[in-house]
Amino acid sequence: MSTLTTSRLETYFVSRNILAAEEFRAAEANAAAQGQKVLAFLRRQDRITHQQASGAHAFQYGWTYQPLDDDLEISEDLISLLDFQVARKLNVIPISLDGDDLTVACVNPLDVNVTKQLQSKTGKNILPVYSSKNELTRAVGRFYSTSIEAALVGKAAAKEVTTEAAKTFRPSLVVVGEEGNIVNTLDAIIEGALEAGASDIHLEPASTHLTVRYSVDGKLRNEPHQPKELAPRLSGLIKTRARLSSSELVNQDGAISHEYKGKTYDLRVAVLPAVWGEAITLRMGASEAWKLGQIGFSEDTESQWRRSINQPNGICLAVGPMGSGKTSLHYASLDALMGQGRKIVSLENPVEMKLPYGMTQVSINEGQGLTWDGGMETVLRSAASVLFVGEINKDAIAHTAVTAAITGHLVLSTLHTNDAPGSVLRLREMGLRPSVLADSMRAVCAQRLPRRLCVHCKVNAVPDREMILDFKLTNEDLAAVDPETGKSIWYGPSQHGCRECNGVGYKGRLPIHELMTFPRHIRDLITEDVPNRVLAEAAKQNGMLTLQDDGLLKVREGLTSLAEVRSHILID
């Protein structure tokens, strides 16, 4: 660091009574001895605040420093001067406008290229000031989020809507092409969901507006409302993209694709006529299949599942409620089976993730005559050795899938049951004989996706009486501490969260599993048609960890909370 720069930093701290000259010089010497910059050294020593460091950094270069506090307010008119994508790309934010002079906060006020781009985009004279990268990232994320962009674009689109149906907001049939701000609004809503890591988008018409909600980590999050005039137009656009009927108001299912940041996402579409219009749910598909090692299995559970799916025939099921990651588990399993010289065919309604190669994917479309029954019959004649059936939800599908499993095919599918042993009872109820099930079952994996505690703000939390009773915790359990930190192993979410988790206390999800395999003595029990509780007990004695067991292990590791696990499982 030059003598001039050092002198300016010392002047900054001393003139503001932040540090004495002797303190600064001592810190400078210690920083140099450790190969660090003095500002970074002072921050790590907690001698100065983030804003003081940023102010000093700006002062040494002769820049004006603009703090971007969380309570900073910027008008919508000022925000609209910059294109949302430009603001996010350049990481800049407008601060004030005086005539034609637009003050903009950026990380490097000397960057001529940024200044020229902003002048070209706004037609204003740009006056750059300095803000730190972290401050800018938070502020841009707040004022230029995709959610706010969607709201602003939606307002513009609403002004363009002039049809009588939109004015009266009566449920109507609107055919929409790829037109202007309507398209931009839908794109912004979808991209907002992708940025938020949402699994679903819910567009729900109300009497005065269109409600937009994202499902993030299994919880619904309200987004800015859209004008009620847009509801039939957005519905019409989605149905057009999904190739659904726009000539009648009926329940419909389909799929659309959306490209964003170089990736293609497949979204499942469900249209439901309601009182105030058509309610639409968009389920977000992943852009690419996970690897089996990314699913989150324990080492032993992953080994058992891999052994099961590498059997030459039989049926392997993923079970659980909607949104518990069953299809993701199977796609990861199919990925692991590719390259083994086996022909793989999937039958889904619709295909949730389009893979570029490695398997033949078939989307059931009963309107076009491609039914489950017909599709299964054709697949069985196509010499496929591995068959993925999207969901066993009808007796006929169950019979055909199990028949395929006992005639030389490996069948992967999903089923809605609460736990792994319950799958046998569910298939019995669908008319399958115990002897057939005993001959075909290879593995059943029950899965749930509780939320993961935010690593930045989680706090120690003593389990309450209800949790102690539900999980049968002992005094020894409650007294357990982490040997490395000496702190209690029991954690919960921070009451107010933090910036990293948007004040929720949780960020992301993690899986808990219950894997049941079928050695000979359990197959014999199935043949004997024993009660479900007997089958479950035998599976536990065979080493099966229940969802409660695996969830408790994840809690003990500090990954999630007892309350979160409790909200996802049934406890007798």
Automatic annotation (TrEMBL):
Tree of life domain: Bacteria
Domain named Type II secretion system protein GspE N-terminal: residues: 69-147
UniProt entry keywords in alphabetical sequence: ATP-binding, Nucleotide-binding, Plasmid
Single GO molecular function: ATP binding
SUPFAM superfamilies attached to this UniProt entry: EspE N-terminal domain-like, P-loop containing nucleoside triphosphate hydrolases
CDD domains documented for this protein: PulE-GspE-like
Domain Bacterial type II secretion system protein E: 179-565
A single GO cellular-component term on record: plasma membrane
Gene3D superfamilies: 3.30.450.90, P-loop containing nucleotide triphosphate hydrolases, Type II secretion system, protein E, N-terminal domain
Family: Belongs to the GSP E family.
The protein's name in its UniProt record: Type II secretion system protein E
Species classification: Bacteria, Bacillati, Actinomycetota, Actinomycetes, Micrococcales
